[in-house]
Amino acid sequence: MRAIRTSPITEAVELKEAGEFAEAHQVLNILLIADLRCLDAHAHLGNLEFDRQPATALRHYDIGRQIGEISLGPDFSGVLPWGLVDNRPYLRCLHGYGLCLWRLKRLAEAAIVFTRMLWLNPTDNQGIRFLLPEVRNGTTWKDRPDL
User: Fold this and answer.
1) Of 34, 84, 93, 139, which has the highest C-beta tally within 10 A?
2) pTM for the whole structure
3) Each residue of 13-28: pLDDT tens digit?
């Protein structure tokens, strides 16, 4: 009987959850070697670094964000609903990017990113409507009540 293989992204997430960060990095980097435009790999590399090194995570998310922006084009004014799974990697990159900006006390920039996310995905499957008021009110990441 043949074993069922999971996707490389799922494999990387499972490795991260098991505390095997180096192995997760390796799986994601192999994806990027095959195609640097793999936004989900960039998003998940950001996720790997988010708790330990937010500035490094920011770079990963930003690369994915910028690739997504190029793909959309400068005049894009449509929506990217979460329900269409191909939109999710870009939205994950934006989400992580905004959260890192917030953690790094770049609140005005985080507010711009979060506002854009609400325009792109009005159903707000990522819960940005709950974060944006805190950012706009000047609440720092470490002063959030849920931490």
Assistant:
1) 93
2) 0.93
3) 999 999 999 999 999 9
